[in-house]
Structure formats: structure tokens, C-alpha cells
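Entry for 2-acetamido-2-deoxy-beta-D-glucopyranose complex. Fields follow.
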Amino acid sequence: MVKQAMLPLLSVLFICFTPKSLAGTPNTYNVVDLGARPDGRTDSAKAFTSAWTAACGSDSAATVYVPPGRYLVQKADFAGKCRNSAITFRMDGTLVAPSDYRVANAGSWILFHGVDGVTLSGGTLDGQGSALWDCKAAGGSCPVGAASLVFDNSNNININGLISLNSQRFHVVIHGCQNVMVQGVTVSAPGSSPNTDGIHVQRSSGVTILDAHIGTGDDCISIGPGTNNLLIEDVICGPGHGISIGSLGSNQQEPGVQNVTVKTAVIRGAMNGVRIKTWGKPSNAFVKDVHFQHVTVTDVQNPIIIDQNYCPGNRNCPGQACFLTNNSGVKISDVTYQDIHGTSATEVGVKFDCSRSNPCSGLILDGVKLTYMNKPAEGYCLYAGVQVEDVQATNCLQS
Ligand SMILES: *[C@@H]1O[C@H](CO)[C@@H](O)[C@H](O)[C@H]1NC(C)=O
Ligand SMILES: *[C@@H]1O[C@H](CO)[C@@H](O)[C@H](O)[C@H]1NC(C)=O
């Protein structure tokens, strides 16, 4: 009874004080109060930087608030080391990149580096990449382009509910980070847009990607050298190039990839389902302890693929390495494929094209059911040690 009587009073208090207290909450820095213009045309980068500087200099937890509206941000660079490790970007608005791709350069558009304890909640990033894609398609000399959101050398990061649209290049990059949660992120770019990977993880440990919905022109999620303890769960991919470990082994000295789990993924209308891709040249890199579980593919060209002969146009492979074909130095071991099913868009559903000098070892297929035109898809294996369990496929994969 007492509780019920209290409720109306509380709601009145809430209604009366909410607007004021939100604006005046200590340690909340509203970018509009600091000069940002939600008109989509006026460069608001300075206001964002001011808000960050204030939040970063605060002795206690702080919030940067981005109200609804479109904010043109030419380029933003948010650096540590802050006086607190609990900064939240609460975004109800959209950040818009300059449509002139020559403006945002240096590889990234919204960059956080050396930060600790940053949460990015909600919001939309509109990379306006189409002019650069057109330039690339026309074959002119175009800049590489900027990744929309980059976390570099940062720890304890939480990105949730973000929408990233039409990046010039990669949409979200996690590089040199530890303990990162990426949850409920949506990425959207046309299937024809070049190098627009959804989420790229590299040289990072303890990254979790949950509930992602990604359609792009390149990898849905790409996993680069030096990635450890990565969990990807509940993702929907397509169009694009699927979930990809690699390319690895482009350098002689390169950290390996270890302990990656991909669990419950749906991949539709993509070039690949789950892929491991390495350059066909010497390297000390490796891939081990990888688990692909519960993956549904629909109309995917290479549902399961290991390609160790990557050497586009047989160029960029220094020395003679590429003439010694099938000679990738990258050692691939202990990769399990469990409950992978659906439809292949080509005859070969499982392709293991491994290195002659470093054959794949410990590949386990368990419950793989892939069809091509209503018949079991084929398997193709070269230099691969495969153990099969309950696999519906022909050729090298017959159990
Ligand atoms: C592997 O990574 C997961 C996170 O995906 C982590 O919980 C687990 O402890 C790691 N295993 C090892 C042996 O490091
Ligand atoms: C090298 O790999 C290709 C497939 O990528 C295969 O056709 C060829 O037979 C392999 N060559 C050797 C020498 O193993």
C-alpha cells in the first residue's frame, strides 16, 4: 500500500526534475551546449573534442551526450590518458563524415586511442563512403579511405547499439585492445562497396562480439594477426565475404591467432561462410584453437574454406616465394567445424587448400550438412589432415 501511494508522487518528481537535471547533471557534457550544430552541415568536431576533453579531465565518471540530429564531424581524435576510467558517449544523434573523401584521412574518421573504460552507447555513424567507392571503381588514384570507428591501444571498451553506415573503408576496427565488448551493432553498406569490412579485430585479446547484424561489400568480421580469446556469438552476415580469419602471413614475422570461437551465425548470400586465408609465402604466423559452431549458410559460394594460397595477381610476394606454390608458412591447427549446415552456391561446400610445407592439422568436421542444388556438396582437400564425423559430402570428406 505504501509503495503504491508513493508512486504518483515519484512520477511527479520525475516529470518535474528530469529535463533540468539531465542538462545540469554534473559530468554530463552535451555537445550542443558546447557548440555542435545538429544541421548536418556545420563542422562540429570542435564541440566533440571539447566534450571529450572535459569528460576525460573529470575526476569521476563522465558522460558525453549527443542529442538527436545530424552532426557533421570532419575528423575526431579522442586520446587517453584520462583522469577517470568511466566515460560514456550516450548518442541519440548521427555523426556524419564529410562527403569529400579527401578530408578525413590518416586511416580513421572517429579515433579513440590509448583510452581505458569507454562506453559508446547508441548513435549512428554515417561514413558517406559512396564517392570514394566510385573513385575506386573508376580505377583512378584514390586514397585508401578512412575506417569509420577505430579503437586503438585501448582497454575495457564497450560499444553497444551502434549503427554504422556506408564507411569509406572498415566500419569498426579494434586494434591493440584488451577486454572489448561489441554488442547489438548494426553495419550496413552495399555488397559492391570495396573494403568495407564490418568489424575488424587485430592484435587484441578478450574481444566479444554479440548480436551483430552486418551487411557489407567485404568481410562481415575479419580477424587479423595477434588476435586471442575472441568470441563471436549470434551474428547475421550478408551480403559480403563472410567471417574471415586473415589475411594472415603477409609478413615474415607476425603474431598468431589463437582461441577464436564463432557460435551461432547466419550467413546469407555471401562469398564465404567461415574462412581462414593466408598468403602463400613464408611467415612464422599461426592459427590454432578455432571453433566454428552452429553456423547456417544460405546461398554462400564457399561455406567452409581454408585458402593458404592467397597471392593476388602473384604480386606482392617478395622474392621467389610465390613461385614455390602452396608454400604458406602459416601453420593452421586444431580447427573444428561443428553443426554447419545450409546451401552452397557452388559444388564445393568444403574447401581445404592448405600449405604444402605446413599442412593443416587437426581439422575436425562434426555435423556438417551442406547441399548444392539439393545434392550433398563436395569437399576438396589439399595438404589437410581432416577428421570427419557425421558429414554429408563427397570426395575427401567421406567418413
Ligand atoms: C578462450 O577465449 C575465451 C573467450 O572467448 C575465454 O573465456 C577463455 O578463457 C579462453 N581460453 C583460454 C585457454 O585462454
Ligand atoms: C597448389 O595448389 C593448387 C590449388 O590452389 C593445386 O591445384 C596445385 O595442384 C597445388 N600444387 C602443388 C605442387 O601442390
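NOTE: Residues 63 and 193 are 34 Å apart (CA to CA).
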